[in-house]
Amino acid sequence: MRDFDMVMDVQGIVRVVIGYSKIPDADGELHLEVEYRLKPLNLEFLQKLYNISPNDPDYGVRDLIDCYPINAEQAKTLQPYVIDGVIDLEKYDFMLECYQI
Q: Would you call 98 helix, strand, or coil by DSSP?
């Protein structure tokens, strides 16, 4: 098992990747099209992936509670953790998001 495979994330948080439409509707809104849950991830792994300091004073940033866009490199890195889906950046604009459980 690799270090970042261990479950060491923020307690009570479920990580998801959400794909939004690339073309806005008549009101200029981009709609959620797909949502895929992620397998448990190590918080340190996510901090490194998004270049976030573990000492950031804002817990929303430090714990990756805020929403973060997913680029091609991040999509490739996160894909093995996606449950029942594919991060297809050609089709959707993806964000790393989370829910409290």
A: strand
Residues 81, 78: Cα–Cα separation, whole Å: 6
Cβ pair 70, 95 in contact under 8 A: yes
DSSP code for 43 = H
Backbone angles phi, psi at 92, to 5 degrees: -135, 160
- What are 35-82's pLDDT values in tens digits? 999 999 999 999 999 999 999 998 889 888 899 999 999 999 999 999
Domain that holds residue 21: 3-100
**Distance (Å, rounded) from C-alpha 19 to C-alpha 66?**
16
Radius of gyration of the chain (CA): 14
